[in-house]
Amino acid sequence: MLDDRKLAVLRAIVEDYVSTKEPVGSKALADRHTLGVSPATIRNEMVALEEEGYITQPHTSAGRIPTDKGYRLFVDRLSTVKPLSAAERRAIETFLGGAVDLDEIVTRTVRLLAQLTRQVAIVQYPSLTRSAVQHVELVPLGPQRVMMVLITDTGRVEQRVIDHLDWVDDDSVENLRTLLNRLLVGKWLTDVPPAVADVPSLVPADERRMAASVLSVLLESLVESREEKIVLAGTANLAAMDFSASLREVLEALEENVVLIRLLGEAGDPSSLTVRIGEENSHEGLRSTSIVSAGYGIGDHSLAKLGVVGPTRMDYPGTMGAVRAVARYVGTILAGQ
Amino acid sequence: MLDDRKLAVLRAIVEDYVSTKEPVGSKALADRHTLGVSPATIRNEMVALEEEGYITQPHTSAGRIPTDKGYRLFVDRLSTVKPLSAAERRAIETFLGGAVDLDEIVTRTVRLLAQLTRQVAIVQYPSLTRSAVQHVELVPLGPQRVMMVLITDTGRVEQRVIDHLDWVDDDSVENLRTLLNRLLVGKWLTDVPPAVADVPSLVPADERRMAASVLSVLLESLVESREEKIVLAGTANLAAMDFSASLREVLEALEENVVLIRLLGEAGDPSSLTVRIGEENSHEGLRSTSIVSAGYGIGDHSLAKLGVVGPTRMDYPGTMGAVRAVARYVGTILAGQ
DNA sequence: AATTAGCACTCAAGACCACGGAGTGCCAGG
DNA sequence: CCTGGCACTCCGTGGTCTTGAGTGCTAATT
C-alpha cells in the first residue's frame, strides 16, 4: 500500500512544510530533495497519499500539506528523535544546575524547555502520591490550633493548619507526632492511608478526637495534594505561530490548568515520549496543536510529566529530543538533591 | 486654555473611542452626545485639543483618537471611578468567600479580576516583610539537617532545610526554637534582624555554630522572601485586544515576573489607585498598554499590589472600579483569616 | 509497466482602479 | 462666536485582470 517511495515523499513533504510553513508542490519537492524522480512522478505518488488521507490540499491548485494522520505516520515511522547538540546539553546543565529548591527546579525547567523549543512549555509539579514520607511534624500553635507539616523525599512540603480543636495539650501532640513518624517515615504516600488506619486504637481515649482531626487533614492533603499544580512558560512564542484555531482559544485552554492536567494524564506510558497530534487531543481549543510530553522522575520512577505545546506543524524530531533530554536531566537533578 | 467645552469634547472622544474602537469624528460626536453645538464647532475645538497634544488623527481624513496625554487628563480630571454593580459585588463575595488558604485566595482573586475587567490581571503575593511572625519551628531531620519553618500572620509559610551542619542534637535545637519564638513571635518581619542580633551571646558556646547557620538561613528567607512572586490570569483576553505593539512583545513582558514586580513597585501611593498610561510605563514592550493597580492588605496596612494590564484604550472608570473593589475585598478576607 | 514530458486548466494572491463615504478645513453669513 | 455650506483628502471596499505556482491528464519514452 505504502511503498518506500511514498514514504520518502511524505517525509519530504512534512519536513518542507514544517520549515517553510507553505504548502509544498511537486516541483519544489523535486528540487529540494534528491528523490531521483521527476515532479510528474511525485504528483502521482501525491495522489495516492492524498487518497489514503495522509496529505491534503488547502485548495485546488495549491501544494500539499500533511494531515494529522500524515504527521502521525511521520512521527511513528519516518523520524528519529534528534539528540540535542553539545552546546544545548551544556546549556541545560548550567541552567538547571544552579537550582536550589523544588520551586526553582520547576521554574527553570519550564523556561528552559520553552527556550529550547521556541514553543509553550508545561511542567507538572512532582506529584505527592509518588513520593515517600520523609517526616511529619506537628506544631501546636495555640490552645485550639495545630499545624501539620508533611515533608516528602522529593523536597516537597505540604502544610495545613488544623483549627477549632477541642483542646490541645503539648504532650499529646508530641505523642501523636512520634507515633505518626514511626508509622509513616519511608512509606510511599499511597501507602499512608492503610498505615494510619489503626491509629485511633493506639492513642489514649482522650486524645482520639484530636488525632482524628489531624488524620483527616493529613489524608485530605494527600488526595488533594498539588498534583494539579502546573507551570507554563513561553506563551509569547504563541504569537509567532499561526493556528487554524484562534489564538484566544489556545490561550484559554492553556490557562485552564485542569485541562492541561487531564491532557498530560491521558498521555500514555509515562516512561517514554508521548506525542498527541491535532485532533487526537480531547480538548476543543487544542485541536490545532500538538503536545509532546514525557514523564520525569527519579530513576524510572515517574513523578510527573512535562511537555511542549505547539502547532501541529512543528519540528517533531527536535521537539521530542528537547523534551526527552530535559525530562532526563530533571530526573538526575531530583535524584541528586 | 482648556475651557469646559473642550474638556467635554475630550471626554466624549475618549468614551466613544473606548467603546467603538474607531477614530471618532465631529459628526458622530454631535450625534451621540448632547453637546449642544454643531459639528463645525466641535471641529474647531478638536483643532485646539490637537494642538495641545490631547488627541491626534491616525491620518488626514480620519477621526481623532486620544493620545496618552489625553487619557491622562481624562483619568485625572474627567472621570470618576465607577462603582461595581450589586451583582458584581455579590459575585466577588461568593467567589472569594470560598477560599481556604492564601494560595487559593490569590488564585481566585486573579481570576476574578481578569473576568471582571476582561483584561489581564496580575496579583502579587503578600510580601513577607510587611507581616508579623506567628511561629518559628525547627525540626531535626537527621544528624546534620534541620528544617526551619517560619509562619506569618498573613498565613504564609516559608520553609528551608539547613544542611551540612556540624552536628545536631535534639536538645539544643529545642533550646534554640524556644529562644527564637520568645524573641520573635508578634514582631514585624522587618524587626526580626535587630531582634536576633544578640542570639549568639544567649546560647551555649557549643551551639553557636548551629545557631549561626539557622539564623543566617532565617534572615536570608526574609530578604529573598517571595516578594517577587506574581500570578496572572486572563492572558486569553489579549487576543481580543489589538495593540499597536506586537502581541508577542506584550506576552514577553508579562512573562517576566521581574518586570511586573518593578512596574507594580513604581506605582506610587500603595493605599490608592494608580494608573500608568502607555509611554508612562518604563518597560518597552508595555508602551502601548495601561496598568491600573492598587495596594491591598489588612486595614490600611498594604501588603502587596494587584492590578490589571490592558490596552491604553480601556474603560478606565470601570477598570478602576473593579480593581479598587477587589483590592478592598481581598483585604477584608485576609483580615478575617 | 513505470516514468516523464507536455499541456490545458484552476485558483489564490497581488496589482490596479474606481468610487463611496466619513471626515476635515475653511469661509461666509447668521 | 457659532454654524451651514462646500471643496478636498484619503481610507476602505469591491471589482476586474494578470500572474504564477500547482495540478491532472494524456501521450510519448524508457
Q: What oligomeric state is this?
A: homodimer
Structural class of chain A: alpha+beta
Number of helices of chain A: 13
* Percent of sequence in beta strands of chain A: 15-25%
Distance between the termini of chain A: 52 Å
Number of strands of chain A: 10
Radius of gyration of chain A: 26 Å
Mean pLDDT of chain A: 88
Low-confidence stretches of chain A: none
Largest sheet of chain A: 5 strands, antiparallel
What global shape of chain A is seen? elongated
Q: Can you put this structure into words, describing what you see?
A:
The structure is a homodimer of 337-residue chains. Chain A is an alpha+beta fold. Chain A has 13 helices and 10 strands. Chain A has a 5-stranded antiparallel sheet with strand order 7-3-10-9-8, with helices on both faces. Chain A has a 3-stranded antiparallel sheet with strand order 4-5-6. A two-stranded antiparallel ribbon of chain A has the order 1-2. In chain A, β4 and β5 form a beta hairpin. The radius of gyration of chain A is 26 Å and the shape is elongated.
Topology at a glance:
2 copies of one chain form a homodimer.
Chain A: H1 4-20, H2 26-32, H3 39-51, E1 55-56, E2 65-66, H4 68-78, H5 86-97, H6 102-117, E3 120-124, E4 133-140, E5 146-152, E6 157-162, H7 170-184, H8 192-196, H9 199-202, H10 208-224, E7 230-233, H11 247-255, H12 257-266, E8 274-277, E9 289-298, E10 301-311, H13 316-336
Antiparallel strand pairs in A: 1-2, 3-7, 3-10, 4-5, 5-6, 8-9, 9-10
Helix pairs in contact in A: 1-3, 1-4, 2-3, 5-6, 5-13, 6-13
The structure holds a DNA duplex (30 and 30 nucleotides).
